Each structure stands twice: as structure tokens, then as C-alpha cells.
Amino acid sequence: MFIFFPRVDAPRWSFLQNDNQALTGLSDTLEPGSISRLGLSGERVFRAKFTGAIPPPSERYWRGPVFSYTNGKQWVQSKSVDFKRYLDKVTFSGEPYHYQLLMEPQVKNWVFALDMPVVFTAPLHENVYHQLLTSESPGKRAEYQISSYAHYNTGYITKTEYADSLQIPGNPDPRITQLVEQLGGFNSAPKTFIDNVFRHFRQNNFYYTLRPPLMQETPIETFLFEARAGFCGHYASAFVYLLRVAGIPARIVSGYQGGEYNQTGDFIEVRQANAHAWAEVWLSGKGWVRYDPTTAIAPERVTQDVNIEQQIASNTVSFTPLELDSRSLSLLRQARSLWSSMDYSWHRWVINYDRKNQFNFLSGLGIKTLKMMLYWLLGLLACVTLFLGLYMFRRQSPRVDKAQFYYGKACQKLAKAGLFRQDNEGAEDFLRRVMKALPHVAIEFGKITALYVQIRYGKAFDQALLVRLKRSVSAFQLSTKVKP
What we know:
- There is one protein chain.
- The chain is α+β, with helices and mostly antiparallel strands.
- It folds into two domains: about 20-340, no CATH class; about 405-475, no CATH class.
- It is built from 15 helices and 21 strands.
- The protein has a six-stranded antiparallel sheet. A five-stranded antiparallel sheet has the order 9-3-17-20-21, with helices on one face.
- β15 (about 205-210), α5 and β16 form a beta-alpha-beta unit.
- The chain is rod-shaped and about 135 Å long.
């Protein structure tokens, strides 16, 4: 019934869905503090189940909104979202990753695909910044089939992208101009300047933290020359700003990085604590290329899973296992992995088994029309009903013991003579009727009855009595019938 009964989509206004409470998640504005708050949240965002190869942690960049405009304190998405590409398209290389993305209910209509998505179907669509969006309500759990490539070339840069990716508010601070010149930003190749910026982060006591000091007025300058401490948002925004001052188109991409692999359910689980920001730089002949400046000072942020439990408990960044004994840690991880796997299967195959998923599943079995579906449903119901009917109403012969069997044979001999024992008649009562109707066999049948009663209702079983009963019944013969 569950598999074949036609599904009816729940109304959009349904309010009896407490587990579908939408998550706020990433913001459409990037500023110091936005991602650090998510870094202390264990809320699940989505789960991805791959068909075939699973990407290594260093390639698990889940693309979200792209930020191109800044006022020096905040970064927001460009207002130029309607420009079109008329020349080349994105080209891909290597092997694709195929996966099913199970999104938790969200406030925004953002779908976080593995960078870079190439195959997807409605209700998904891609904007000019290669971010996937859904045209359906994001406030309910949804599953999507997507294919992505880790290696790609986005091609040329449009005039709109070029202008947006060089925008800075006013003139840069002289200290920033001096730093860009010192690192070769005005007189060297873009790749050389990028390497120099990474080297500057590594060699000048920068470090990664989710609790940096406040940088309200001039966050980029304060981060570069005073605090030198921050999380991914600080490093990505400072990196992009330096490149723009050097005349190199760059922008910030937000999303999620990494995700914990669930070995029991064979899927990757991404939570809010995996929120991340990185940079994209446009290079001639390569298109938009991903650079993650956080890896300059915390490469383990990308190569290892974030230890979310310890990070939340201590309010500090942690990429190392919890400090528990190996047995407790193993049992804890196994229990959490098992529970997460059960929860994934429940939501995917039960909660999320809507009309669309039912059609996809039954189409694989060759059932593609409503008429055929109803035929299958009626046929299965008929088979199940027949099976249950046969099981419930089949006649079962009552089990009898040997004493009752032998006594029954003696009663059958009397029945041939016309004397029938009633169903509600006891052995002693039947004997009295036999004595009146057939007095010449009363003694022999009386012995049979006495043996039967003693075996059936005696305190202890005696095998010798059963043998005597059998012999007595075999020797019991009738020569006359009861007179009418």
C-alpha cells in the first residue's frame, strides 16, 4: 500500500511539520562574525550520497552565494545578476561526481552543490555565478540528483564581472598600497603575486580563530596590520581586497567546506559548523580559479574534518579527535553514525516518498502510468488477501495423544454396531450406555475405558498401561448390532 498507493503532495500551508523547521544558515551578507556564529552550530544543512567515487576532503567545496560588492565593512552579492553569457561555456575535465543531495528545510532558496555543478534538473536552475537555486519552496526537505566536476574552466570574463570584481570603496589605505607593492602586485604576474600573499600570511604570525577581536571600523586594515587573527571570512575578504588593489579580478564565494563521512550510511553529512568562505580569481586562459587563503595558515581546515563537537564545547577551532579513550570514542562515533544513517533512510524513503520519488522508483520497475500502478496495487492486495485467507481459514487437524487415539478406535468399532458417542459425552457416561445397549461387551469395553481414564487423568504416566490399552482395543470385537 505504501509503495503503490498514489501519492498526494501535502499542502504548502501544512503546519503539522515541526521537524521541517527552516534553518537560517548562511547570510546574504558577509561580515566578521557571520560565519563564526555558524561555526558553533551543529545543525545539519544537507547530506550527499554519492554513486561511485566520493570526493576527498580537499575537493568538498559546496558552492553558495558569491559576493562581489563591498563597502569596506560588508560584502554583498552583486546587483548585476541579469547579464548573459553569449560566447563560450564552462568546460570540464576529469571524472564527474554523481550524488543525491538531501537538503534540510532552509529560509533561502539556495542549494549547495559540489563545486562545479554541471547536470541537474528542475526545479533547480543556475545563476550567472554558478550557484544553484530552487524554484520550489525551500521550507521543506527536498532531494536533488546532481553531477559536478572538481576541475573546470569557466572561460572568458564579461565586462560586468570584470567591473564588479575590481570594485573597492574609494582609495585604499596607504599601508595596503605599500603591502601590495612590496608583494609584487603591481609588477609581477597574478600567480606570483598570489603566491606572495599566501607566503605573507604564513610567515607573519597570522593565525586562525573563531573568536577574533572586534574590527568594526576598518576590518581589513585592522586584520592585516594589527590583529592578524580571524577565520575564513577575514582571510577571504582581505585576500580579495589585496588582489583588487593590484588590478586582479577577484570575488568571495561562501558555502560549506568538508563534511563528515558516515560509513554506516555511506553518505557525507554537512552541518552549519562547516560554513566557509573562499576566493575566486580570474586568470587568463583558466577562468575563475578557486583560492582558499585559509589554507595558508590552517591547511587542516580543508584536508581534515572539522571536529564539530569539540569546537562547539570549547568555542575554539578543532580539527583533532576528542580527547577520549579509543574505546569510548569508537563507540560514540559508531552510535552517532548509526543514528544518523537511520535518520537519513527514514527521511529519504519514508518522509520524502512523495509523488515525484514514487514515480521515479516505480518507473525503474517498468510501471509508468497511473492505470498500471492501480493494477499492480489491486493485484498485490488480491494476493495478500488470498494468502491471509488461506492461512486463517485452513482446517487444522487437532492433535491427539496415543491414549485418545486407541480409545477412539474402540469407539469407532461401537459406532459400526450403531452405538455413537456424543461430542459432549464423557467416557464414564458412554460406558453406562454401552452396558445397557450391549451388555455382552460391557466387561471388555469397561477395561478399555478404565485404562483410558487412568492414562489420561492419572497422576503419573505408565508406558505399560498404554501397551495394555493398545492390545485391549485390538482384541475388542463386536458380533451384534444395537437393536433399533
